[in-house]
Amino acid sequence: MDTKTFKRTLQKSDRYHRRGFGHDAEVEDTLKTEYQSSLVDELRAANNVLTRGDVTIRLAEAFGFCWGVERAVAIAYETRTHFPSERIWITNEIIHNPGVNDRLREMNVGFIEVKNGEKDFSEVGSGEVVILPAFGATVQEMKLLDDRGCTIVDTTCPWVSKVWNSVEHHKKRDYTSIVHGKYKHEETLATTSFAGKYLVVLNLDEARYVANYVLHGGDREEFLAKFVNAHSEGFDPDVDLERLGIANQTTMLKTETEAIGKLFERTMLEKYGPIELNNHFRAFSTICDATQERQDAMFELVEQDVDLILVIGGFNSSNTTHLQEIAIERGIPSFHIDSADRIGLDNSIEHKPLDSDITTTTDWLPAGPLTIGVTSGASTPDKSVGASLEKVLEIKAAAAVPV
Question: What pLDDT is attached to residue 77?
Answer without folding.
Answer: 96
